[in-house]
Amino acid sequence: MKKNAIVLLVVFLFAATMVLLFGWFLPAVLQIYLHNYYIKGLTLLVIFTGVVLGKRFTWSNHIVYVIAVVTVVGMMFDTSGNPMYNKPLEWIVSPIGELQVMQDVNNYAPGEYAISDNIAILKQDGGIIELSTAWLYLYRFVQYLALYSIVGTVLGAVNRRLPERDYKLIQTVDETLPADLEQKVAAELKRREEAASAGRILPDEIQASVWKLKQDGKLIPAIKLVRMHTNLSLGEAKQYVEKL
Q1: Over the stretch 42-97, which tens digit does the pLDDT of each residue have?
Q2: Could you tell me the sign of the dihedral formed by the alpha carbons of 53, 73, 109, 12, in that order?
Q3: Which has fewest Cβ within 10 Å: 42, 88, 165, 236?
Q4: What is the tens place of the pLDDT at every residue in 100-124?
């Protein structure tokens, strides 16, 4: 019973979360982005600043890649721009007429939107010159490239003035032994090697006994006899007997 109640509670919380998310939060955010001309550019600027400062990017440390990504995203995401961003474009077309950058939002069904950006020049005689959106994309690309190159340069200068991050250094242990201790270790290793070599040599009478056992087909007793008089392993003793 308790388990069923927990399952129902989880389902209820999930449904309530989905209702709040898709019924209130996302539509509210969408309305903000559709009706506030500055929110898109500000969002990109905040993200760019956070990434550059967080990763300490500079012109000598890969900031150019961040600028390239934000430029392309800004060109696609903030095509219509805002009155401040569009001022240079207005100055460019002012001899011809007044710039008109329009964003059409078509709501085909609940939750289904189609957004299109249009650019036109309203001539002084009342005529309208409709321009391809490609020109708007091109202008926005150049604008974002210049803007974030400047902002990136400023943030890069800030990063260079920030104190270096305190990375914990791993201290290496000096494993060099003193000269006298090295000599003692070398002498001990040599002594052990000589002792091991001596233990591997069978006396002549024992070797003759091993050879006779082998000739009689008694390999196991021969191997045991070898191991009894040496420090050879089982495999080494077997090889020794086989090579006799």
Answers
A1: 888 999 999 999 988 988 888 999 999 999 998 888 877 788 888 888 888 888 88
A2: negative
A3: 165
A4: 777 665 555 555 555 566 778 888 7
Query: 127 with 190, same domain?
Result: no
CB of 119 closer than 8 Å to CB of 133: yes
20, part of any domain: no
* Residue appearing with tokens 């709501």: 107
Q: Are residues 152 and 61 in the same domain?
A: yes
Domain of 207? 179-243
- The answer to whether residues 104 and 205 belong to one domain is no
Q: How far apart are CA 117 and CA 99, in angstroms?
A: 13
Residue 139 in tokens: 């202008």
- What distance in Å separates the CA atoms of residue 146 and residue 124, rounded to the nearest whole number? 31
Three-class DSSP category at 244: coil
pLDDT attached to residue 198: 45
User: How many whole angstroms separate alpha carbon 234 and alpha carbon 222?
Assistant: 11
Which pTM was predicted? 0.51
Provide the terminal-to-terminal Cα distance of the chain, rounded to the nearest Å.
80
Q: Is 63 in the same domain as 145?
A: yes
Phi first, then psi, for residue 85 (nearest 5°) are -65, -30
